[in-house]
Specification:
heterotrimer, A alpha+beta (385), B mainly alpha (304), C mainly alpha (527), A: alpha+beta, Immunoglobulin-like, 4 domains, five-stranded mixed beta sheet, 10 strands, 16% strand, C: 527 residues, mainly alpha, Cytochrome C Oxidase, Chain A, 18 helices, binds heme-A, binds dinuclear copper ion, binds copper (II) ion, copper (chain C), translocase (chain C), transmembrane (chain C)
């Protein structure tokens, strides 16, 4: 709390200066004319857009009529212009009319709405089926047919977020590895989550589907035009809810095929690394990257965590002296706490990140300094007797 | 309906005492629960203090109401306020139970089948192997996550078949509670006919039955934990089972206390007249309400 | 003890006690109403200050003022405080002041319980706010506290939050029981149900909603408590539960809750429009039926907040149709108000200005609500600023404007002094303009794709966010003016007549201004 306050005051000073800079220099590449919903780029999203416009215009017309009568009355029947009010206060005919007419209008709106919905709900298998899993705070994509699996993390630099360097064009809308799908194919997403509820939204496809831990929701799309489509997580999922974007890259079929092959090769190479003889330095270096991606959100860059919520790893007894328990925590998570299992990382990544935490922040000096090899993780995974 | 001389009590310190008690109770309960398992935590003292002062405040509050009644300050109209008040309070309790029954119906008809791969949403679960090997059934004995730290129950509390029905505690509980509704009604009839002896006797019997019910329920919980492996921690079946029966049991105790208070008032102070006994009536309504909830429980938790 | 009871008859017609004990021990509906109103105003300022933190952070892209973690705590507390501390107690305060006077009752039916209902609230909010200073911070899971973010992943203060909601619920239930009993049992002879003032009707229906749904909320937080601390799995799929179950239970409470926050407003606005149009309200009977229909329908539309959780098709269709239906009775009310003005003889004192703004801006909020009800379109709107715009339109120029209108309208009766009309008009115009500057652009931001509950956003949303923030600060400052006007009126001002407004009808205008401490110890004659 106090820490936050302190930081806040500092920022307040920065902001007030930023305020005036921002007001007088319209240097942000913003868009005053982004007023309406996107048309999107699929048949479904077009239809949703049309539906939105239809209802919008109906509301506008009703509004114009109702407010028209109201403003007219407000203008015409003031005490000055109409000192003697009439005192009618009932008209069954009128009241029936304004019950029935809105009702009919509603039916008129409900029909196309229901039709579109039924179309969206028609979910048979896709040509390609992708299993999307939300994590705090990243997305995992697994291609059910092709045995490809990877994570997609926000790639915007922290310095941009904290206003230390100028913001790039795709600020907060860029990831290290987008999900790739072929154009013109029916793609079906099977969406779930690993910890809390997230929601996978790509406005251009008119897909917004909650990712519920333990349950699977589906959504499908056919995108004809290759391109890069950007979306976001739309269910409050904790601290970094605003920082887990979705990026979908739609490519032609042959480009897709070669991408699939490259991904498979990559996986093969990673498996080879497991066999390799690692030094502490190599592992630590690799582990730092893994830590940045997976752990900083909670345990912080300096390993200090956030008091009361996320324990410090720097100086943690487990991290310094208890290699077995350390591996176990990473593999199993801690029941009932935000610390989830990370067993979906590769053996190399796991070994690297554990080694990194055991070496960094003076942990090696104060603790046993033992490193963890990919082999240890493999051993851990072997069925225990 | 006349508001002539509606009794508006003077300033009173009871409400603010009650509010402070609730505050202590709530602070105490929260910190006690948060410090569960922390060695040497003293938070529970706040909880006890809040609880004690709440009980004391309620005691003085109701005593005051009774005194006002005996002093003849209230009118028929005020009594009607109490009647309405009690009725709507019971309705709010009904809605509280509705939340838990709703949860039960939802998991039974939707969540558990879906998790087991049945139904519109379930088929997709199967497609990604989230809960491999889990089969939906009710009562739910094996939880979807077979490895998690759930204490797996061995068997459920459900209907054991005709041959074992006599060892089936819920049946006895039902009989006990239903008869207590009858005895409290007989007591009421006695009171209405000016027969205080009959009233005291049958009300005493009701309180006795309430005690028996609570005892049996305790025995059943003991069974569940000790021999069935059924605990709060054994998945959604245990959760719904213990929360529904637990809150019901808690309400039985409250109702039992209300009835005992009425019994004491009648036995020791000769309160209540044949035409004037709303305190008792309120308690007996509450009792009937608790009874109805049990019947629903028996039906939906135990039999179906 | 008995001495106290005996001399109560003589004391009955005395004025209030002196000093602090007057407020602590009071059983007087006017005192309690005043307490409620001041409390809610304080909460409005606190919740509003939090909104200012939110808006300041969103002034431009990038993290400026607060950390994301703290931002989440701010939106959570802002939502909770505005709803449970701002709007609801304000309406209860108005009910306390007005219902007994409008139906010719000496007081509320259960005066001591009335005091308890109020005094629980400061403690409940103390508990809630104190969580800001606890280890791990305040609740950070949104006012809708969806599991499992609010269970397994919640900060420890969630336990305090849960119990605080429990006692808030107890307070609401007691308050609602009191209102119902008062209305059902204490009406002066001659005031039949269909002759009751509409504000009384609106509160009768609201009270039923409260009794029906607050216990359900209590059930929901109880399940959370058990899941967090005692190993149950209501909201945990691994044990056979379902996180979505939480949402069903929450919204079964939550949707009626939003009508709890608008029905009394309907009542208020009806009175004000008929007074300043100097013309009887058009369609009294249909107004009552409309409110009843809205209340009943509100129990079968809850899942329109959950269109994206992956419900079966049949459920989506049912909840879409049911939700759309609510437009019909609400429309009836809007048409009735407009028709009441038609051929009236209107003047525009501050209450009337607020009431007219209410009708227009609430209807705009209703239109966006209707758009949200259309499931395929809601897939695009859901959890974006379009929703934020919708509910602030119905809540701020809806509920809050109606409360302000009510204060201007009845404050002469409460204090005996007229408020400063010039300042009142200024307050109105400032509020009216700035509320639109704040919330109208949020429609654009939402449609363009900015999700809600984001502490930071992509560059294309920057301009309108900036506008919105500027509007929000202007709106905030305008409310300080409101505080000033109220204080000024309480202290002094032109003396008000008994009837106050030329067109005012109803029992409360027959008693003196300020209303005597005890009104109607014998029931008034009503024909
Ligand atoms: C006072 C509070 C209030 C009120 C009155 C309403 C009124 C309505 N609301 Fe709103 N709503 C909220 C408060 C309120 N809402 C809040 C707080 C949330 C967000 C909660 C959260 O997630 O945090 C929300 C969210 C919300 C959603 C979920 C959006 C989402 O999360 O994706 C939906 C969806 O259907 C919805 C619909 C409606 C509808 C149809 C009405 C209707 O009652 C409106 C009816 C009125 C009119 C339609 C205008 C007048 C009518 C006419 C002039 C007649 C003719 C008109 C036609 C025939 C079109 N609301
Ligand atoms: C009745 C309910 C109510 C009311 C009155 C308000 C009032 C306001 N709300 Fe709020 N709001 C909600 C209910 C309400 N809100 C809810 C339920 C949510 C959802 C929460 C969630 O997602 O869980 C929400 C969310 C919400 C958000 C979205 C946050 C997000 O999703 O990330 C925003 C952002 O602009 C916002 C802004 C405002 C503003 C500017 C006001 C203004 O009208 C406030 C004006 C009042 C004041 C400013 C106080 C008076 C002045 C002072 C105390 C002096 C100090 C003032 C200055 C320094 C200027 N609100
Ligand atoms: Cu993930 Cu929000
Ligand atoms: Cu709703």
């Amino acid at each position: 709390m106090l820490q936050i306050l302190k930081r806040s005051i500092n920022k307040l000073i920065i902001t007030t200066s930023a305020f005036f800079v921002a007001i007088f220099s319209n240097n942000l590449n913003a868009d005053w004319f982004a007023l309406n919903m996107t048309r999107g780029s699929t048949a479904v999203s077009e239809e949703v857009f049309e539906l939105h416009m239809l209802i919008f215009w109906i509301c506008v017309v009703i509004g114009v009529i109702v407010f028209g009568v109201m403003f007219y009355s407000m203008w015409r029947f003031t005490k000055k212009k109409n000192p003697e009010p009439s005192d009618f206060h009932e008209s069954t005919k009128l009241e029936i009319a304004w019950t029935v007419v809105p009702f009919l209008i509603l039916i008129f709106m409900a029909i196309p709405a229901s039709q579109t919905l039924i179309k969206i709900y028609d979910d048979e298998e896709g040509d390609i089926n992708i299993h999307v899993t939300g994590y705090q705070w990243k997305w995992q994509y697994e291609y059910l047919e092709d045995d490809i699996s990877f994570f997609s993390n926000l790639s915007t630099d922290l310095d941009e977020i904290y206003n230390l360097v100028p913001k790039g064009e795709f600020y907060l809308q860029e990831v290290d590895e987008p999900v790739v799908i072929p154009a013109g194919k029916r793609v079906r997403f099977l969406i779930t989550a690993n910890d809390v509820i997230h929601s996978w939204w790509v406005p251009d496809f008119a897909i917004k589907q909650d990712a519920i831990p333990g349950f699977v929701n589906t959504a499908w799309t056919v995108v004809d035009k290759p391109g890069i489509y950007r979306g976001k997580c739309t269910e409050l999922c904790g601290k970094n809810h605003g920082f887990m974007p979705v990026v979908v890259k739609v490519v032609e079929q042959d480009e897709y095929d070669s991408w699939v092959n490259a991904k498979k090769e990559e996986a093969y190479k990673l498996a080879e690394l497991t066999e390799k003889d690692w030094t502490a330095e190599e592992l630590s270096a690799r582990g730092e990257g893994v830590y940045q991606v997976n752990c900083v959100a909670c345990h912080q860059v300096n390993g200090q965590g956030i008091p009361g919520i996320f324990p410090a790893l720097a100086g943690s007894d487990i991290v310094m002296n208890d290699k077995e328990r350390n591996i176990e925590i990473l593999m199993e998570g801690v029941q009932g706490a935000a610390m989830n299992s990370f067993d979906y990382l590769s053996e190399v990544e796991l070994a690297a990140v554990i080694t990194y935490t055991r070496q960094a922040w003076g942990n090696a000096e104060n603790g046993d300094g033992e490193i963890v090899l990919p082999k240890d993780i493999v051993d851990y995974k072997k069925p225990k007797i | 309906m006349s508001t002539e001389n509606y009794y508006v009590p003077e300033q009173s310190r009871l409400p603010i005492f009650a509010a402070v008690s609730l505050f202590l109770l709530v602070m105490g309960a929260s910190s006690t629960i948060n410090n569960l398992g922390v060695e040497g935590s003293k938070s529970s003292y706040i909880l006890y203090a809040g609880f004690a002062s709440l009980i004391a405040t309620l005691f003085f509050w109701f005593r005051k109401v009774v005194q006002e009644h005996l002093a003849g300050l209230d009118s028929a109209q005020l009594k009607k306020s109490y009647v309405y008040g009690m009725a709507w309070f019971i309705f709010s309790e009904v809605m509280f139970f509705a939340a838990f029954f709703g949860a039960l119906f939802y998991v039974r008809s939707f969540a558990v089948p879906w998790l087991g791969g049945i139904g519109e949403k379930g088929s997709q679960i199967a497609a990604v192997d989230l809960w491999n090997g889990f089969e939906a059934s009710w009562p739910l004995i094996a939880t979807p996550d077979q490895n998690a730290a759930f204490a797996m129950a061995d068997k459920s509390m459900a209907w054991p078949g005709w041959s074992n029905v006599l060892q089936w505690l819920p049946l006895w509980n039902t009989i006990v509670l239903l008869s207590s509704s009858v005895t409290v009604h007989i007591a009421h009839l006695g009171l209405k006919n000016g027969n205080r002896k009959k009233f005291n006797r049958w009300l005493g019997a009701t309180v006795g039955l309430a005690l028996i019910f609570v005892g049996l329920q305790a025995a059943e919980y003991y069974e569940a934990y000790a021999h069935y492996g059924l605990t709060l921690n054994s998945g959604i079946y245990g959760s719904t089972f213990f929360m529904l029966t637990g809150f019901h049991g808690f309400h039985v105790m409250m109702g039992g206390v209300m009835l005992s208070v009425m019994l004491c008032r009648s036995v020791f102070f000769n309160h209540f007249e044949d035409h004037d006994h709303f305190g008792f009536e309120a308690a007996s309504w509450y009792w009937h309400f608790v009874d109805v909830v049990w019947v629903m429980l028996f039906l939906f938790v135990y039999i179906l | 003890m008995s001495a106290v009871i005996e001399n109560h008859h003589d004391e009955h017609h005395h004025g209030p006690a002196k000093g602090l004990t007057r407020w602590l021990y009071t059983t007087n509906h006017k005192d309690i109403g005043t307490l409620y109103l001041w409390f809610s105003f304080a909460m409005f300022l606190i919740g509003g200050a939090m909104a200012m933190v939110i808006r300041a952070e969103l002034f431009e892209p990038g993290m400026q003022i607060v950390e994301p973690e703290f931002y989440n705590q701010m939106i959570t507390l802002h939502g909770l405080i505005m709803i449970f501390g701002g709007v609801m107690p304000a309406f209860v305060g108005l009910a306390n002041w007005l219902v007994p006077m409008m139906i010719g009752a000496p007081d509320m039916a259960l005066p001591r319980m009335n005091n308890l209902s109020f005094w629980i609230l400061p403690f409940a909010f103390f508990v809630l706010l104190s969580s800001l200073f606890m280890e791990g911070g305040a609740p950070n899971f949104g006012w809708t506290f969806y599991a499992p973010l609010s269970t397994t992943y919640a900060p420890p203060s969630v336990t305090f939050f849960i119990f605080s909601v429990h006692i808030m619920g107890a307070s609401s239930i007691m308050g609602a029981i009191n209102v119902i009993v008062t209305i059902m049992n204490m009406r002066a002879p001659g005031i039949t149900l269909m002759k009751m003032p509409l504000f009384v009707w609106s509160w009768l229906i609201t009270a039923y909603l409260l009794i029906a749904v607050m216990p359900v909320l209590a059930g929901a937080v109880t399940m959370m408590l058990m899941d967090i601390h005692f190993g149950t799995s209501f909201f945990n799929a691994a044990g056979g539960g379902d996180p979505v179950l939480f949402q069903h239970i929450f919204w079964f409470f939550g949707h009626p809750e939003v009508y709890i926050m608008i029905l009394p407003a309907f009542g208020i606005v009806s009175h004000i429009i008929e007074t300043f149009a100097r013309k009887p309200l058009f369609g009294y009977t249909s107004m009552v039926w409309a409110m009843l229909s809205i209340a009943i329908l509100s129990f079968v539309v809850w899942a329109h907040h959950m269109f994206t959780v992956g419900m079966p098709l049949a459920a989506e269709l049912f909840f879409m149709w049911a939700t759309m239906l609510i437009a019909v009775p609400t429309g009836v009310k809007v048409f009735n108000w407009v028709t009441t003005m038609f051929k009236g003889s209107i003047t525009y004192e501050t209450p009337m200005l607020f009431a007219c703004a209410f009708v227009v801006l609430f209807t705009i909020g209703g239109f966006s609500g209707l758009m949200l009800a259309i499931v395929p379109a809601d897939f695009q709107y859901h959890d974006t600023y379009f929703v934020v715009a919708h509910f602030h339109y119905v809540l701020v120029p809806g509920a809050i404007f109606s409360i302000m209108a009510a204060v201007y309208y009845w404050i002469p009766k409460w204090t005996g002094n007229m408020y400063d009309e010039r300042l009142g008009q200024l307050h109105f115009w400032l509020s009216f303009i700035s509320v639109n500057v704040t919330f109208f652009p949020q429609h654009f931001i939402g449609l363009a794709g900015m999700p809600r509950r984001y502490p930071d956003y992509a560059l294309q949303f920057a301009d309108w966010n900036m506008v919105s923030t500027v509007g929000a600060f202007l709106f905030g400052v305008s409310q300080i003016l409101f505080l000033f006007i109220v204080l000024k009126t309480v202290i002094g001002g032109k003396k008000a007549t008994d009837q106050v407004w030329e067109g005012a009808r109803g029992l409360e205008w027959t008693v003196a201004s300020p209303a005597p401490y005890h009104t109607f110890s014998t029931p008034p004659k009503v024909d």
